[in-house]
Write a structure and sequence with these properties.
Distance between the termini: 59 Å
Number of helices: 10
Low-confidence stretches: none
Number of strands: 10
CATH class of the largest domain: Alpha Beta
Strand order of the largest sheet: 4-7-8-9-10
CATH topology of the largest domain: Trna Endonuclease, Chain: A, domain 1
Structural class: alpha+beta
């Protein structure tokens, strides 16, 4: 078995795939195919199987009610040695992150995947449109927001460039689990305090930011938009999860409180 595990000669694309899984944490076969540039799904799946069999990737299956369960790939036991060689990453930290990923329950996976779908859509949209550039991306506890000692955690924070300007954005993937009262207090209230109190400018240098809220359904979006409008007409942008695709994410799919038209993320204001 040990001979089999060490028999694979890693290609540059293999190393890219391992790095992608370390960065995204969980990726489906199709997401890896798009990000790594495989033309053939069959070829991609054969290579992923080899990376799994040799310990560079691990995998688990996303529970579904019907049909085949999608395979999710994440860093394997040997991912740390590759990342240490490639980028000088600490193998211990990668092993620790892998242990955390192993503890995530099946019920929590859809939320992780929805965040990844958003990131993938932005990445592919910027790849297809060279004048847009994704400058940085941080997930959850990598970017805690501090309000006088009280911390809250966005699902992600990222910065992109467009026509010489930089845009600072927070992402919230709504799971339809919060009550109206809690949403107003812990989402709307916290972000308003963070922005209007100058905390963001002191921490990042950006005076303004947007909070992007991705909702499961149009009905949920209408409800959250109404709740936001009771507090502010600023900073919040909302879209339905089904529209979060590379070809649409930068187009006029976004709604804003107090407005009846649709907006593009490339618009000012």
């Amino acid at each position: 078995m040990s001979g089999r595990r060490n028999s694979l000669i890693l290609q540059e694309r293999d190393k890219k795939i391992i790095a992608l899984c370390c960065g995204y944490h969980f990726l489906t076969q199709e997401q890896i195919r798009l990000l790594a540039g495989f033309g053939s799904p069959v070829r991609a799946n054969l290579r992923l199987k080899k990376l799994h069999d040799t310990g560079y990737l691990s995998r688990r299956f996303l529970p579904v009610f019907r049909g085949g369960a999608p395979i999710l790939y994440f860093p394997g036991p040997r991912a740390g040695e590759v990342m240490a060689e490639q980028s000088g990453a600490d193998p211990l930290k990668i092993r620790q992150k892998r242990k955390q990923l192993l503890k995530i329950k099946d019920t929590g996976l859809p939320h992780h995947l929805a965040i990844n779908e958003f990131r993938l859509a932005v990445s592919l949209a910027s790849k297809n449109n060279p004048v847009i550039s994704l400058k940085s991306w941080s997930k959850q506890k990598e970017m805690p927001l501090d309000l006088a000692g009280k911390k809250f955690y966005p699902d992600a924070y990222f910065v992109y460039g467009w026509q010489g300007k930089l845009y600072s954005l927070f992402l919230e993937v709504d799971r339809s689990t919060e009550s109206n009262r809690r949403f107003q207090k812990e989402k709307v209230g916290n972000y308003m305090q963070y922005g209007l109190g100058g905390h963001h400018q002191r921490k990042t240098g950006f005076q303004f930011f947007r909070v992007l809220i991705v909702c499961k359904t149009a009905a949920r979006l209408r409800n959250l938009k109404r709740l936001i409008e009771q507090k502010t007409s600023r900073m919040f942008w909302l879209a339905v999860q089904g529209d979060i695709r590379a070809e649409k994410i930068l187009t006029k799919i976004w709604q804003r409180p107090g407005r009846n038209t649709l907006f593009s993320l490339l618009e000012d204001g």
